[in-house]
Amino acid sequence: MASLPERFNEVRTPVGLDLGAETPEEIAVSIMSEILAISRHKKPVPMGDTVAEGLKKRVVIRGAGDLATGVALKLHNSGYNVIMLELPEPTVIRTNIAFAQALVNDDKMITIEGVTGRKARSVADALKITEQRNIAVMADPEAASLRQLKPAIMVDAILAKRNLGTHREMAPVTLALGPGFSAGKDVDAVIETCRGHDLGRIIYSGEAKANTGTPGVIGGYGTERVLRSPCAGVVTPLVKIGDLVCEGQTVATVGEYAEPVITQISGKVRGMINPGLKVSEHFKIGDVDPRGASVDHSTTTDKARAIAGGVLEVVLRLSKQNG
């Protein structure tokens, strides 16, 4: 009798014939069509076989914040099919350049630099979205869908500064962004996320630089750029991304008593958390760029692009080695 791993590898998905099925009833027909053909000793082409080549290009990214989005854009534009997994209520702050917003926007989509991300309600929905050359975004922080998705490449871009369960068995090629992972042990490679000379550097053995706990300095400001909640409660933004603000201005309120969030510097709002989210005390809810009006807030950052370049290099190198 075959072992459990061998039996598991015999399972394929999706099941059924490719009839263009969309509704549950139509999907049931496609599955029964394949069963009927097999029972009559026919050799149908199952849906799973039609996507076999696509499996080699399937990328799953854990996280859909601004840095993960930069990676997703780079891989998508390089011909890969990208599926992103996020929290049902994302806590990203650069909401205008994060595909996570597809989960909460009224139209369940967001377009960034000409590429559209769409909310997927199931694995089948996600595959359909990528077939249409869009990026699929699923509410699946535990990555429970990986068993069905069977990606060729898995990228941990959660940026939690610690490993939230990612391991090398998740895909033939695995990599992670930033500290909390050991290359060669947890994942195949780690990408440096600390600003400076090594930003975007690929690490095949060892770890990225430890988290310093302090934001990178821009225009002479570091911690002053970050907007944090003064207390626990629901956030109500008073400004939006792209607005110019002045030092001492109240840019949001938090909690039942509308505790003010006051910016320490003047500049352009680059990040602001979604309204209505409940946060803990000192939670990061936004940031202000001291460079002001000259900053382009509508496209991915130089940091995201540098990291994305490192990811693409790893994917190309290791995918070639794996055949």
UniProtKB/TrEMBL annotation:
Domain XdhC Rossmann intervals: 5-35
InterPro entries in the cross-refs: MoCofactor_Util/Proc, Se-dep_Mo_hydrolase_YqeB, XdhC_Rossmann_dom
Species classification: Bacteria, Pseudomonadati, Pseudomonadota, Gammaproteobacteria, Oceanospirillales
NCBIfam families xref list: matur_yqeB
Top-level taxon in the UniProt lineage: Bacteria
Name of this chain's protein: Selenium-dependent molybdenum hydroxylase system YqeB family protein
Pfam families linked to this entry: XdhC_C (PF13478)
Annotated organism of origin: Endozoicomonas lisbonensis
